[in-house]
Amino acid sequence: MIGIERLADVFVGVADTLVADFDVIEFVHSVAGHATEMTGAAAAGLMLSDLDGGLHYMGASDESAHLLELFQIQHAQGPCLDCYRTGQPVTETDLATATARWPEFANQALASGVRSVHAFPMRLREQVIGALNVFGAEVRSLDDEEMRVVQALADIATIAILQERLIHQAEVLNEQLQHALNSRVVIEQAKGAVARSLGVSVAEAFDLLRSHARRERIGLTDLALRVVESPEGPQLLRPGS
């Protein structure tokens, strides 16, 4: 039976890592550590998918779990991969009976002292981003309460990681937008300078900038910046320049 106070301490500890300087590696190691504490398991590990759907090792409670996670990836078999592919928990209470299911993994796990494994999907609705593996040194099944707690840890980790990805994507989008805005300002400045210097309309100045950029095979923003900052300025666009 998992005590309420202990359960609260674990989730407060997980929440403490969700700060402004969120470090995903530290976070997943923390989740793996809490999973072993709450179940009495020997070790736990966590895999996450990339944008192409490939699984990658991200963190573990100790080196033995780290190696088992890598082994699954290298041999393309194991509970974590099955869990990720199906989006459903995978339980094997006695790995000695799983050598037909996962020949390489089961033998490797047994050789390292692991006798049972439980894999929990990291999913939010239909999106599965990875799996959390709990490795036991004994032949045993987690009880219903332990299963709920570890799945809750996996769910919290999923939400935190997805949120971090969204924040990162938003930051990239903002950077791209700011770059576009800065480029637009520079181009407008160059258009005005060319129009004044060469005695043409703003529309004609823009056409001159675009034609010159294509002819010289340089970016329009780079050319505009050169026109604005260069001592030669708009004269760069005169024929023969």
Structural class: alpha+beta
Main pleated sheet: 5 strands, antiparallel
**N→C terminal distance:** 82 Å
| N to C succession of SSEs | HHEEHHEHEEHHH
Query: Strand portion, in percent?
Result: 5-15%
Query: Helical region count?
Result: 8
Strand arrangement, largest sheet? 2-1-5-4-3
Proportion of helical residues: 55-70%
CA gyration radius, whole angstroms: 28 Å
The number of strands is 5
Mean pLDDT: 83
Low-confidence parts: none
Gross morphology: elongated
Short description:
By secondary structure, this protein is an alpha+beta fold.
Descriptive notes:
- α1 runs antiparallel to α2 and α3 (63-75) runs antiparallel to α5 (103-111).
- This protein has a five-stranded antiparallel sheet, with helices on both faces.
- It is of the alpha+beta class and 241 residues long.
- The radius of gyration is 28 Å and the shape is elongated.
- It contains eight helices and five strands.
- β1 and β2 form a beta hairpin.
